């Protein structure tokens, strides 16, 4: 039977089920419907055919005249619309007006049609048409609008053709204002007027809905006194019992009606069945339903419908489907469209897509007219089934069959398009939804904003964020973080700060530390030190703790501005006022001033700290000493160091700072004196000291001193670091002088290795081409690993060595080995290989490496370009 349905609906559906594509979980569907745009739907059928088969059904049963009416109302102003409607020659009757109103989705358009119809000669609105427009307003929860409508009621010429008081009382009752309706009713009775049966019952129903049960009894008595008592009255009385949780009385009253052969409405049974289900008394409700199945006066369709609804609401979806199918087979029961819709929406929420498909097929098979809810549910089905192209085609052609998307469909479509990578389409759908008055949920806004942020679509991201703020929807903190970060990267840091200020309200947005850092760095790049310092303070006020490098960046930027010293001291003052000052606060400012090469300001902060009664810690002394050395104020640094020697015991860290600073200031000879002084006091210099000494002496080509430093390093029981060996290899490649100095030192071969390992001197010799190392050329990288872990810099030097030795084939093998070990080649890696091939006359291979280099986003150096 299932295959028969599929064949009747269209070939694409049989493909779906023959291939077992539709399953009951979204995760399974994702594997079978890959979310990538394709020109075809499931089963290799064109998207257009899949969408067309649904569109033909949706067009089925539609009244083109009603569609034309609403098209005129929506596309023209009131005067032109009135003229266009008059030209249609409509024959206005109560059934026709009700039909138009019931098909309307847009409240404003319904009101426009209601107003136009009421002004046409020969037609007067009835209570039924008023009741219809009141219900439309209530359904859309436009109570204030409805009350305004009622207030202007008497000003309209056509209104006086209807029972005035009845209509007004009925309107206020439906609007949920029974107190106002009762006051008008009292005034009406005082004038000797009375309501008719219809209005009495509308008022009675409103009182029951608002739980005004004392007044309900009074109105019931009035209805009976006037002979208006009917099956409608009995239904409402049972509804009143149920609302008061007097279920036994409702049960007895209902059975009394049945026993006395009183005229009975199915709504009476519906009210009690619904009340029992809400109390989770499904067994009693089922017994009641069975009891009335043989009662010919009661139409069971409405009772079955509420039973199905309550089963679904209680989570008994399978029971509801089973009941519906059994009644269809045994009694020919066909639920209304609204009940199918209710079931389909619930199944969609549970990702039971095969059941959704079955119900859609059943609706089509029974020629039920699909409404807007059905169409929206079908669109959601396409989205959940991964048929993105079908959903999008369906959406784009929505005007053909009058589809007006609801918020659920918009959310599904936008989220699905984002998951599919169709961000442009998702953005356009969002804009369209807002234009039509539907606001997607917070999650949908956040998903789209996050996607646009990843894609770098800043302009569209800005529109999405602004739209969410306009609708008072707060997106996730992560989205705002990314938005502000994107603005900062685009050098729109002022805009980022404005957004930050708008959102930075109590309990509104909790920014991550990274967001503040991005704003601060954005202002630093824009040389706005004043703003950077302001955000730095805000960052701390919101519970984040900036690190030293952030203070350093802000202070350096601040000191590049006019009145820099005033701004600097003001920031220090604000910082100290936030809490009880400690050395850490002062140290940040000493460090920042030092990096800005303002040692006098660093000294001023240091003296302020001591003046305020704080004892500087070791970091304070080190940072002030570094501030002198960074500015190459060597005499001040030496003077400060000598003063420290007089007042305190000199720690190893102070010596290390002095030695490293002097090396960086290109004073290695002076630094070496401090090394000797340090060793005389029994202190061992840090490895960094030796690294800077080696680097500085190599830069000065004082290789004899380098050899002595390496020897001294080994004497203190340390082995050269990766940094030192890389420096040695680099200089060995460029000159033999380092090898000669090493030879003069008498430490060329070092200790004999019983394992056949190379010594550092031999390695220098091989790189200087002074020692034959061809036996090691293939696995030179493995030999070097005996000394230290390799990095990309080391591999680049190895490649240079191989290229210089005309061993290009070995160089290519080394490149492959480098990549296989997880090292990522850089520009110099590719350039070294390309240059080597060109230099040795292998032009075609050199060009291939240039192409690889360009493909990776690098450009050749000038020396390599000469060969091209």
How does this structure look, described?
By secondary structure, this protein is mainly α. Among the domains are: 702-789, no CATH class; 791-868, Serine Threonine Protein Phosphatase 5, Tetratricopeptide repeat (Alpha Horseshoe). Helices cover 69% and strands 0% of the residues. It is built from 51 helices and no strands. Helix 5 (64-75) packs antiparallel against helix 6, helix 15 runs parallel beside helix 17 and helix 23 packs antiparallel against helix 24. The model is unreliable at 1-45, 157-162 and 751-756 (pLDDT under 50).
Whole-number radius of gyration? 43 Å
| Unreliable parts | 1-45, 157-162, 751-756
Tally the helices: what do you get? 51
Structural class of the secondary elements? mainly alpha
Gap between N and C termini: 72 Å
Strand percentage lies at under 5%
């Amino acid at each position: 039977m299932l295959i028969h349905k599929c064949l009747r609906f269209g070939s694409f559906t049989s493909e779906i089920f023959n291939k077992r594509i539709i399953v009951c979980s979204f995760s399974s569907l994702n594997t079978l419907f890959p979310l990538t745009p394709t020109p075809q739907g499931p089963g290799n059928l064109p998207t257009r055919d899949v969408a067309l088969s649904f569109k033909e059904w949706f067009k089925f049963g539609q009244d083109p005249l009603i569609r034309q009416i609403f098209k005129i109302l929506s596309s023209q102003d009131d005067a032109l619309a009135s003229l266009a409607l008059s030209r249609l020659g409509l024959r206005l009757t109560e059934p026709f007006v009700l039909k138009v109103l019931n098909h309307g989705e847009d409240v404003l358009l319904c009101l426009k049609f209601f107003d136009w119809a009421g002004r046409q000669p020969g037609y007067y609105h009835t209570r039924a048409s008023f009741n219809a427009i009141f219900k439309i307003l209530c359904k859309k929860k436009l109570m204030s609008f409805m009350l305004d409508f009622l207030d202007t009621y008497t000003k309209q010429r056509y209104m006086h053709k209807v029972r005035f008081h009845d209509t007004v009382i009925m309107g206020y009752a439906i609007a949920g204002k029974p107190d106002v309706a009762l006051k008008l009713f009292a005034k009406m009775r005082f004038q000797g007027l009375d309501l008719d049966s219809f209005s009495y019952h509308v008022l009675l129903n409103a009182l029951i809905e608002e739980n005004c049960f004392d007044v309900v009894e009074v109105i019931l008595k009035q209805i009976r006194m006037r002979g208006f008592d009917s099956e409608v009255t009995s239904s409402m009385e049972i509804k009143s019992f149920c609302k008061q949780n007097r279920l036994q009385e409702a049960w007895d009253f209902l059975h009394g009606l049945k026993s006395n052969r009183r005229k009975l409405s199915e709504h009476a049974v519906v009210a009690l069945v619904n009340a029992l289900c809400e109390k989770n008394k499904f067994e009693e409700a089922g017994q009641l339903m069975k009891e009335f199945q043989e009662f010919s006066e009661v139409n069971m369709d409405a009772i079955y419908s509420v039973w199905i609804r309550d089963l679904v609401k209680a989570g008994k979806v399978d029971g509801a489907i089973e009941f519906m199918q059994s009644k269809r087979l045994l009694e020919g029961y066909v639920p209304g469209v609204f009940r199918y819709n209710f079931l389909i929406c619930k199944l969609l929420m549970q990702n039971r897509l095969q059941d959704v498909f079955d119900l859609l097929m059943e609706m089509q098979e029974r020629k039920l007219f699909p409404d807007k809810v059905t169409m929206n549910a079908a669109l959601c089905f396409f989205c959940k089934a991964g048929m993105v192209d079908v959903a999008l085609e369906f959406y784009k052609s929505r005007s053909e069959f009058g589809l007006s998307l609801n918020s659920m469909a918009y959310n599904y479509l936008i989220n699905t398009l984002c998951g599919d990578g169709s961000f442009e389409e998702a953005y356009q759908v969002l804009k369209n939804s807002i234009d039509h008055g539907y606001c997607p949920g917070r999650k949908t806004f956040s998903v789209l904003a996050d996607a646009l942020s990843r894609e770098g679509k800043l302009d569209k991201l800005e529109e999405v964020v602004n739209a969410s703020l306009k609708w008072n929807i707060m997106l996730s903190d992560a989205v705002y973080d990314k938005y502000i970060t994107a603005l900062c990267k685009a050098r729109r840091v002022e805009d980022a700060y404005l957004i930050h200020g708008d959102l930075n309200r109590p309990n509104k947005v909790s920014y991550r530390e990274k967001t503040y850092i991005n704003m601060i760095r954005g202002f630093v790049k824009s040389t706005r030190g004043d703003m950077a310092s302001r955000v730095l303070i805000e960052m701390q006020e919101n519970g984040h703790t900036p690190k030293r490098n952030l203070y350093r960046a802000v202070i350096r930027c601040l000191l590049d501005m006019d009145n820099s010293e005033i701004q600097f001291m003001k920031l220090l003052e604000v910082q100290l006022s936030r809490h009880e000052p400690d050395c850490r606060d002062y140290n940040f400012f000493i460090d920042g001033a030092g990096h800005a090469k303002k040692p006098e300001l660093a000294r001023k902060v240091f003296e302020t700290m001591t003046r305020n009664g704080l004892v500087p810690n070791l970091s304070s002394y080190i940072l002030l000493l570094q501030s002198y050395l960074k500015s190459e104020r060597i005499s001040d640094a030496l003077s400060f160091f000598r003063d420290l020697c007089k007042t305190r015991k000199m720690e190893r860290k102070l010596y290390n700072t002095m030695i490293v600073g002097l090396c960086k200031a290109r004073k290695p000879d002076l630094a070496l004196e401090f090394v000797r002084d340090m060793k005389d006091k029994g202190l061992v210099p840090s490895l960094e000291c030796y690294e800077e000494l080696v680097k500085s002496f190599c830069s000065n080509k004082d290789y004899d001193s380098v050899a002595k430093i390496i020897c001294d390093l080994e004497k203190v029981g340390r082995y050269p670091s990766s940094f030192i060996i890389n420096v040695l290899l680099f200089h060995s490649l460029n000159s033999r002088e380092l090898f000669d100095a090493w030879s003069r030192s008498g430490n060329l071969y070092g200790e004999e290795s019983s394992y056949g390992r190379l010594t550092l001197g031999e390695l220098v010799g091989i790189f200087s081409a002074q020692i034959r190392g061809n036996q090691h050329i293939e696995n030179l990288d493995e030999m070097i690993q005996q000394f230290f872990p390799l990095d990309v810099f080391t591999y680049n030097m190895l490649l240079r060595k191989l290229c210089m030795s005309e061993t290009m084939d070995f160089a290519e093998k080394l490149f492959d080995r480098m990549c296989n070990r997880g090292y990522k080649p850089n520009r110099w890696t590719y350039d070294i290989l390309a240059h080597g091939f060109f230099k040795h006359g292998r032009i075609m291979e050199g060009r291939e490496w240039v192409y690889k280099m360009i493909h990776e986003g690098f450009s050749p150096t000038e020396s390599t370009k000469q060969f091209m």
